[in-house]
Design goal:
Strand order of the largest sheet: 27-30-31-35-34-33-32
CATH superfamily of the largest domain: Bira Bifunctional Protein, Domain 2
Strand content: 25-35%
Number of helices: 22
Radius of gyration: 43 Å
Structural class: alpha+beta
CATH class of the largest domain: Alpha Beta
Largest sheet: 7 strands, mixed
Helix content: 25-40%
CATH architecture of the largest domain: 2-Layer Sandwich
Number of domains: 6
Distance between the termini: 95 Å
């Protein structure tokens, strides 16, 4: 909203010397946002001149100019620029006559642009200034000819300062009006807010305009509202005021002061009648529409559009109407989109003599929908959709009548109408202690009452409560919280202390959060990239990549899926990782190590989820309802999944490329286990999406040594890899991170750094093909005893030199004692004990 200061000063006292910055600061203090300052950007000697003579001189380019003699100061006096009283000026316009008074910009002045004026030689003359048009002065778009002051009804003395004469010395402040404060889309509303901020005396222009009626309303013009929303229970229009003004002089032009104010407010001048309706809209916040009374057919009916109806609006566009559009109609059909834009059939033109003025109050929701439906925002709809004071319509109509009589020579007629079904605002119950407890400031009763009365509320007392009837111009005040905000705003936000709350001790990240962050960090530190996939998948994806027992975990199907091909919530993270890998490989990123940490949705088989609905109403749901709602949510454990494809180690001098595989998946599992302080063991297993011989179930050991399945790792089945256009070998893993965190120790203790040297030995054992290497490794470790510090499988050989159906497993062993240096004999004894244990369990023997 742009507010010219001269206009604002008519309704609230502005101290002498008040600047736009001062007004902005005051309005910001009551919650309005500062936007900009607008001026006409004109300065210097700009005066009233009179054409005393001119000579028309045709030019070789086909143009005819006028060499004019213009008096710019009274005879015998010096001009404002220090020159002679008569200036010679070259002018290309031809719409003026000898004796006309015009606006002359003398050398040294600056016009909007900026466009500095100086004496310059042109067309064989020295033009000592310029005769200005309305557009050059910033008053409008007219540029076909210069501005003749007689057309504005002005006959000032020669040499008069034209800047102040035309109101070009005014300034407008612009503020951003939030959607809940539609009343501030008016000079009336901004003046009231300035009064709240500064205590300056406020004079309500609506009261002054209402007094023009002398208590009597016009009547006799037929108006009917044939509309009531069956759902919302209210009519599209609850106030409709009409007044008739006759014998308007269409030759009269808009006065300069009104043009200047409209221009600063962001509205261009169109014609006197239209300018007056726009002026009153800006002044009082009530949109006004004028009809050419002689073009109307019968009375007015406000109704919804019928199917197939059309309307030509004022912008000459034919619009197909929707059955929800609220219309203004007469006997000929639609003549306007209510609250949005009028129709061309009753448009006011230069020949209009009799005018019907309409000031109505329309349903905000209906107007907002119509404006958006037709992509037709307007100054009127902007106000209606935020809420217009239903009590200002009568005063606004009276104000338009007054200006039409004063400026257009019209005469008010007794014909008109008044339909008022707005009703009075309902009282809001406000407990006396509520505002102080909510805001945190001890407001006195007088401060609360005074603030609410200042914003226009009517306050009465009822026991421990106040009953507050909000003013008609504040439809946003609906409950006690709104009233609390108003008291805080009017008394002053500076009363609210700025104190940062002190966090209570012992809070912060939970243990589970810290462990999850540690997992994400350690994987990223080791070169993996975290990704985030969509949680929506197909049924096939869940069955393929989910639990190894296919179909044992049901999936949640969405009632209104965004993608019909992916209507289920995921039960696994692997499906999303596979899609991300496929997309990246297609774009040339062939070496990937990625992981995702996110929730999966794993409802219990046979249970029904999502059947409970939240009751609609003002009251908060009870604890029982909330418990039922929470019970209707399927379990959503946090999972961790990773994928490695391509070459994690690239080929370089002295180093062959190393392809990704199960070893990379198990390495990420080991990193995760280390981050949470848990031991995770791979056990030979099967999974429908993984390579039959390269699949491991992951077992975590709890504090008692019990094994708990927490996921699986392996290589993607070659057939699936081919289906998704991936390399033949893709390492993957998936962990139930919540389960892993559950078995994690309360404190992760770092191992002791040994003070004595280690003894290393290798052990090669021949075992049957079907014996898992992990089982053999565990047997060796158990048999070797407490001196064994570390064991690692380094080779798996099958071929020449071994009996058919067997394989050779080679383990690297590291032995160490905490209290002494081991001898080779002690290390060998422990190694042979491990071999003996493997021989007992699997028939293993040492390879010669």
């Amino acid at each position: 909203m742009r507010v010219p200061l001269s206009w604002l000063g008519e309704y609230v006292d502005l101290e002498p010397g008040t600047t736009a910055e001062d007004v902005h600061a005051a309005l910001v203090s009551v919650g309005l946002e500062e936007e900009d300052v607008h001026t006409f950007e004109i300065s210097g000697p700009v005066v009233v001149g009179q054409v005393i003579d001119f000579v028309e001189e045709p030019q070789s380019n086909g143009k005819t100019i006028r060499w004019c003699q213009v008096r710019v100061a009274p005879e015998g006096e010096t001009a404002a620029d220090g020159g002679d009283a008569v200036h010679g000026i070259v002018c290309g316009a031809r719409n003026f006559f000898i004796g006309d008074k015009v606006v002359v910009t003398l050398p040294g002045s600056v016009l909007p642009g900026p466009f500095p004026i100086a004496a310059r030689k042109t067309y064989g003359h020295v033009s000592d200034g310029m005769i200005a048009s309305a557009r050059e002065l910033g008053l409008g778009d007219e540029h076909d000819g210069i501005l003749r002051l007689a057309t504005l009804g002005l006959d000032p003395e020669v040499g008069t300062d034209a800047i102040s004469l035309l109101g070009l010395d005014d300034t407008a402040v612009e503020v951003n009006v939030t959607p809940d404060r539609g009343y501030a889309f008016s000079i009336r509303g901004i003046a009231r807010e300035y009064s709240h901020a500064t205590g300056a005396a406020f004079r309500d222009p609506a009261e002054a305009a209402g007094m023009l009626l002398d208590g009597a309303h016009a009547a006799g013009f037929s108006v009917a509202v044939d509309d009531r929303d069956p759902i919302r229970g209210r009519a599209g229009a609850n106030v409709f005021v009409t007044r008739v003004v006759r014998d308007i002089d269409g030759s009269r032009t808009t006065p300069a002061w009104m043009i200047a104010r409209l221009k600063l407010a962001g509205i261009r001048s169109i014609s006197l009648i239209v300018d007056i309706t726009n002026y009153v809209m800006l002044e009082l916040g009530q949109p006004i529409h004028g009809y050419d009374l002689d073009k109307l057919r019968g009375g007015i009916v406000v109704r919804r559009a019928h199917s197939g109806e059309t309307l030509v609006t004022l912008d000459d566009q034919t619009r197909a109407l929707h059955i929800e559009d609220l219309l203004i109609t007469d006997e000929s059909g639609p003549i306007g989109l209510a609250g949005v834009m009028g129709g061309a059939s009753t448009e006011i033109g230069a020949d209009t003599r009799n005018v019907l003025i309409e000031a109505a109050n329309f349903d905000p929701v209906s107007i907002a929908r119509t404006a958006r439906r037709h992509k037709l925002p307007s100054e009127a709809s902007k106000r209606f959709e935020r809420g217009v004071d239903p009590r200002v319509a009568v005063a606004a109509a009276a104000r338009v009548v007054q200006l039409l009589e004063q400026l257009a020579g019209g005469h008010a007629d007794a014909l008109g109408s008044l339909l008022d079904d707005a009703g009075a605002p309902e009282a809001i119950v406000l407990p006396k202690s509520y505002i102080s407890s909510l805001v945190g400031v001890d407001f006195t009763d007088d401060e609360v009452r005074g603030a609410l009365a200042e914003v226009g509320g009517t306050v009465s007392e009822s026991g421990d409560n106040l009953l507050v009837v909000p003013p008609s111009w504040r439809p946003d005040l609906r409950d006690k919280s709104d009233l609390a905000e108003e008291v805080a705003r009017i008394v002053g936000y500076d009363r609210i202390p700025s104190e940062l709350p002190v966090a209570p001790p012992g809070r912060g990240l939970s243990r589970e959060q810290k462990l999850r962050r540690a997992v994400a960090q350690i994987l990223a530190d080791n070169g993996a990239t975290e990704v985030m996939a969509f949680p929506f998948v197909s049924e096939k994806a869940n069955d393929t990549f989910g639990s190894p027992e296919a179909g044992s975990v049901p999936a949640v199907k969405l009632a209104n899926a965004l993608d019909a091909t992916a209507p289920y919530l995921r039960t696994t993270l692997l499906a999303g990782l596979i899609d991300i890998a496929k997309r990246n490989l297609a774009r040339g990123l062939v070496d990937l190590t990625i992981y995702e940490l996110g929730t999966v949705f794993r409802p219990v088989a046979g249970a029904e989820f999502g059947s409970e609905t939240l009751p609609v109403g003002a009251a908060l749901p009870s604890d029982d309802v909330l418990a039922s709602l929470n019970a209707g949510i399927p379990p959503q454990p946090r999972y961790l999944a990773g994928l490695a494809v391509g070459h994690p180690i690239l080929k370089q001098p002295g180093q062959d490329a190393v392809a990704a595989g199960i070893a990379d998946a198990l390495a990420m599992v080991a990193q995760t286990a280390a981050a949470v302080g848990v031991t995770v063991e791979p056990v030979q297993s099967e999974h429908q999406a993984l390579h039959p011989g390269r699949t491991a179930q992951l077992i975590a050991r709890d504090q008692n040594g019990e094994g708990i399945p927490v996921g699986f790792a392996g290589e993607l089945h070659p057939a699936l890899a081919a289906e998704f256009d991936l390399p033949r070998v893709v390492g993957v893993f998936e962990l139930d991170l919540d389960a892993l965190v559950t078995v994690a120790p309360a404190d992760i203790v770092a191992g002791v750094i040994a003070g004595f040297p280690a003894a290393t030995q290798d052990l090669s054992l021949v075992v049957p093909d079907g014996v898992p290497a992990g089982d053999v490794e565990k047997a060796v470790a158990d048999g070797a005893g407490g001196l064994l510090e570390h064991i690692r499988l380094v080779d798996d050989y099958r071929g020449t030199g071994l009996p058919e159906g067997t394989k050779s497993l080679t383990f690297a062993l590291r032995f160490r004692a905490d209290d002494r240096t081991l001898t080779a004999a002690e290390a060998s004894e422990a190694k042979l004990a491990g071999a003996a244990r493997a021989a007992d369990l699997f028939g293993a023997h040492i390879r010669e």
